[in-house]
């Protein structure tokens, strides 16, 4: 992609639709009208305008196999290998079952190894089974009742395998019936490229099973969280054809390791129109993981995308750190598996939620410091700065707010003429505002929902938006904590704009 946000025609279209000042605001930050005092964050008054729950077992743009194109046999009594596989252990197989007087099977298989979900409708039993070295082990099972035609799905998120059903006509949608991670991991590690590289999406039946359409591809999301606008190094939002690019954590069917990172677009004319356009995975320590909760910055000077992310992909209550990589590849489209390194930071404790912007020729890096993750999480915002001309990998600490211990979601954004650091305080249920010396100035006037919603501010035409999420869970009794995230867009009129 070209380094510029929009061509001249796009700028003129925005100017015609929202006025010249509004167009410049959308591109370069809030530009105060001549003769008016500069806007501050405390002039903004937000209200919820949109709330949406993205949910897809297979991401719409990332279907890898569709039996409507390659029809399966009408009755399958064997396991059909599709010949395609995911590049990371985040995939789903969705099966329409027309008749199941035997056992329906789906998952990953190849070379004598398989990880499969099964459903025996007659016996009323679903199971997860792993085969290695010629030995098949049922790692978990559960009672389930289905009648008539239904849909059956098996989802892999990292090493967690989940079986879901959707009974036709019941109107309940996909419902998980069982999930298992530790039992699967004890037998096979799907994060290892040599292991996953030998496994195809697979499906079929044992006995009298009649299948309809089958689809397989990269897992989508049970919800979204941690929105962060993709931006240029100087803070301008990355916009193409009226669409804002945003990274979000795609909630998996389980805890933090089951989530992964993706790039989405939000239509500036209608924020309810979301589209996932890229999926990002990361290779480190010999495995491929779904590290997430980060930021992408396009550096116009070097023509590189800088990616920073948090090491939640293998979180086991033994610390978290920020990782990074830089690439000229177009990470805003397609599927990528990128090698990363630990980012040097001026802290001796855990860190996450990076936010990077070049202000006045110097990189500023906000992040979260965390002294502990057990028996309880303790965390607060911090800010580092690089020397003039130095890269973002060489910073010193400016300061940290150690008076709070449940505060994360750091965001660097200019409002009016000044730059600020925004965060989210889960204890006080408010969004604190700091200057770039880490002095607390006040709080945003914005609704504070459940969980610890991140305050992703940006100017859009004659308004300011705050893009965030909440803690609404999906199927928590079966899946446990982690499947949360309704996307929320708040709006505030710009001061003096009516």
Topology:
Elements: H1 8-18, H2 20-28, E1 47-52, E2 63-66, E3 79-81, E4 90-100, E5 103-110, E6 113-120, E7 125-132, E8 135-143, E9 150-157, E10 160-167, E11 175-180, H3 182-185, H4 193-196, E12 200-206, E13 209-218, E14 224-229, E15 231-232, E16 239-240, E17 243-250, E18 260-267, E19 270-284, E20 287-289, E21 292-299, E22 304-310, E23 322-327, E24 334-339, E25 341-342, E26 350-359, E27 362-372, E28 378-386, E29 395-400, E30 407-415, E31 418-425, E32 432-434, E33 440-443, E34 456-460, E35 463-469, H5 476-479, E36 487-493
Parallel strand pairs: 15-21, 19-24
Antiparallel strand pairs: 1-36, 2-13, 3-12, 4-9, 4-13, 5-6, 5-12, 6-7, 7-8, 9-10, 10-11, 14-17, 16-17, 17-18, 18-19, 19-20, 21-22, 22-23, 23-25, 26-27, 27-28, 28-29, 30-31, 31-32, 32-33, 34-35, 35-36
Helix pairs in contact: 1-2
For the record, the count of structural domains works out to 2
Please compute the radius of gyration using only Cα atoms.
Answer: 24 Å
CATH architecture of the largest domain: 5 Propeller
Low-confidence stretches: 1-36
* Helical segment count: 5
Kindly state the number of beta strands: 36
Cα-to-Cα separation, first versus last residue: 36 Å
For the record, what is the CATH homologous superfamily label of the largest domain? Glycosyl hydrolase domain, family 43
CATH class of the largest domain: Mainly Beta
Shape assignment: elongated
Describe the structure.
With 498 residues, the chain is mostly beta strands. It has 2 domains: 8-55 and 222-493, Tachylectin-2, Chain A (5 Propeller); 60-218, Jelly Rolls. The strands form 7 sheets. Strands 14, 16, 17, 18, 19, 20 and 24 form a 7-stranded mixed beta sheet that branches. Strands 2-13-4-9-10-11 form a 6-stranded antiparallel beta sheet. Strands 3-12-5-6-7-8 form a 6-stranded antiparallel beta sheet, with no helix packed on it. A hairpin with a 4-residue loop joins strand 21 (292-299) and strand 22. Helix 1 packs across helix 2 (20-28). The longest helix is centred in the first third of the chain and has 11 residues, at 8-18. The chain is elongated and about 75 Å long. It starts with 7 loop residues before the first helix and ends in a 5-residue tail after the last strand.
């Amino acid at each position: 992609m070209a380094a510029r946000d929009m061509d001249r025609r796009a700028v003129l279209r925005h100017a015609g639709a929202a006025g010249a000042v509004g167009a410049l605001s959308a591109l370069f930050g809030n530009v105060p009208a001549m003769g008016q005092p500069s806007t501050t964050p405390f002039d903004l008054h937000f209200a919820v305008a949109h709330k949406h729950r993205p949910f897809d077992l297979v991401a719409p743009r990332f279907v890898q196999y569709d039996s409507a194109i390659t029809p399966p046999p009408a009755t399958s009594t064997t396991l059909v290998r599709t010949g395609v596989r995911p590049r990371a252990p985040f995939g789903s197989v969705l099966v329409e079952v027309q008749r199941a007087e035997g056992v329906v099977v789906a998952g990953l298989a190849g070379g004598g190894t398989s990880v499969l979900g099964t459903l025996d409708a007659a016996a009323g039993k679903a199971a997860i089974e792993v085969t290695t070295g010629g030995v098949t082990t049922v790692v978990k099972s559960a009672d389930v009742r289905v009648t008539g035609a239904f849909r059956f799905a098996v989802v892999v998120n990292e090493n967690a395998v989940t079986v879901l059903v959707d009974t036709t006509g019941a109107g309940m949608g996909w419902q998980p019936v069982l999930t298992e991670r530790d039992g699967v991991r004890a037998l096979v590690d799907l994060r290892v490229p040599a292991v996953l590289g030998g496994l195809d999406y697979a499906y079929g039946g044992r006995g009298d099973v009649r299948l309809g359409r089958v689809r397989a591809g990269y897992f989508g999301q049970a919800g979204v969280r941690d929105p962060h606008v993709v931006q240029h190094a100087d803070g301008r939002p990355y916009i193409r054809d009226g669409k804002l690019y945003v990274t979000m954590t795609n909630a998996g069917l389980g805890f933090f390791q089951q989530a992964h990172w993706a790039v989405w677009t939000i239509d500036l004319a209608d924020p309810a129109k979301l589209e996932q356009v890229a999926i990002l995975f990361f290779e480190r320590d010999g495995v491929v993981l779904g590290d997430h909760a980060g930021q992408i910055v396009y550096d116009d000077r070097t023509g590189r995308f800088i990616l920073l992310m948090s090491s939640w992909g293998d979180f086991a209550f033994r610390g978290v750190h920020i990782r990074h990589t830089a690439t000229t590849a177009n990470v805003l489209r397609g599927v990528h598996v990128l090698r990363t390194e630990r980012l040097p930071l001026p802290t001796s404790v855990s860190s996450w939620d990076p936010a990077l912007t070049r202000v006045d020729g110097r990189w500023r890096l906000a992040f979260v410091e965390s002294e502990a993750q057990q028996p309880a999480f303790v965390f607060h915002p911090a800010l580092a700065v690089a020397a003039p001309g130095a890269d973002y990998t060489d910073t010193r600490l400016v300061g940290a707010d150690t008076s709070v211990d449940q505060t994360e979601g750091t965001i660097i954004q200019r409002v009016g003429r000044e730059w600020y650091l925004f965060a989210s305080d889960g204890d006080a249920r408010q969004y604190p505002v700091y200057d770039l010396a880490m002095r607390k100035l006040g709080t945003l006037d914005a609704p504070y929902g459940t969980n610890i919603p991140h305050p992703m501010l940006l100017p859009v035409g004659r308004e300011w938006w705050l893009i965030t999420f909440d803690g609404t869970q999906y199927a928590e009794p079966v899946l446990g904590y982690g499947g949360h995230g309704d996307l929320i867009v708040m709006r505030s009129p710009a001061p003096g704009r009516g």
